[in-house]
Design goal:
37% of the residues lie in helices and 22% in strands. By secondary structure, the protein is α/β, with parallel strands linked by helices. Strand 4, helix 3 and strand 5 form a beta-alpha-beta unit.
Length: 179
Amino acid sequence: MRICSHAAIHAASRPNEFGLYEILVKIRIVALGHRMPAWVNAAFDDYARRLPREFALELLELKPEPRDRAQSVAKVLAAEAERIAAATKGFFVVALDERGEAWATSQLAEKLRAWRDNASPVAFVIGSADGLAGRVKRHADVVMALSALTLPHGLARVVLAEQIYRAASLLRGHPYHRE
């Protein structure tokens, strides 16, 4: 398991009563998969660094369960589901699945506002090559579609980080977002 904390995780935009800066919402992306191409890491890091400081974005990479002919897909997904549950404990969980709810950027921005205002940590979960176990989707607070298309895992990370950045920009009235 590897955790990548990004620049967005450092001091936030407003000081508390002690003059220290606070992070208002922790956003964790739990992704099954590792050894992404350099462009994936560079693009993800770029969007993570651009986030307003009240949003702490971290990437938690979980190694996918080994695939072999002796193990069924259901068993592989069940083993991955155990690790996902441990990585998302205490978080509001958004499972990504192409059959989930489609959110517009403005809807994501409103969810981000609510999570920030309630200081609710949120975890977005990107499945492995075989997707997510039904149990992960059933136990998630929301199942969201990043796209109706099936995306490569690295690209899904980048698109998700960009959309989180875009939603945060929308909340700040930044001209990055256009309707």
